[in-house]
Amino acid sequence: MLTKRIIPCLDVKDGRVVKGTRFVNLKDAGDPVQIASFYGREGADEIIFLDITASFQKRKTMLEVVERTAECTFIPLTVGGGIRNVEDIKDLLNSGADKVSLNTAAVENPSLVQIGAEKFGRQCIVVAVDVKRQNVQPEKWEVFTYGGRKATGIDVFDWIKKVEQLGAGEILLTSMDADGTTEGYDLELTSRISEMIDIPVIASGGAGSLEHISDVLTRGKADAALAASIFHYNKYSIKELKEYLARKGIAVRLN
User: Phi first, then psi: what are they for 142, rounded to 5°?
Assistant: First the structure.
């Protein structure tokens, strides 16, 4: 049985970790280097570092912060935000990232997914997909770009199938409706996506309790659960979460 992964997310703005609700009302949560180092010691399986305003501000990810974060943590580091071309991917990998997360760039230039997978290996390319339910059709979810600021009109199921075919190694799926609410993941969305593709799905958006994470890994069929608020504000520790999951019969890596 493959172990499920627990992944803290560092949303970084102006060099600081922030956390908001539904992508707005951001609050400071600390220094990314210190937080990443702490999570590495705590037993996180990976860290995801997202420079959340880089694409909107049309600038590159802050490589110096990535370098310092990579130096102090010894678990896989995925970095996203502001990636526009193959050189940006190369720079991040050279700065210590193990994987890159493409969102806006993938939508605007889908060939970047294919080129990145061919050049650096499929395992390096994560496609982040931020989605929101459409009120007129609750069974439809629309893809958003630029940190949740721009609606694309793209259907999430069509888009994820396409990027899998292009060579994405993993999907980071964020429900914008659930993000930061601590009311639980979108289990319907996550399970439908997990069932339709053969690459791992990281579920994101809505973790507020140990049960929420258990649910998304079982009922939601996700391969990994990403969380931010519950870890940043010390509601639960990673050790506490993993011990809870193990008691529920969910395979996790225990220290």
Answer: -105, 140
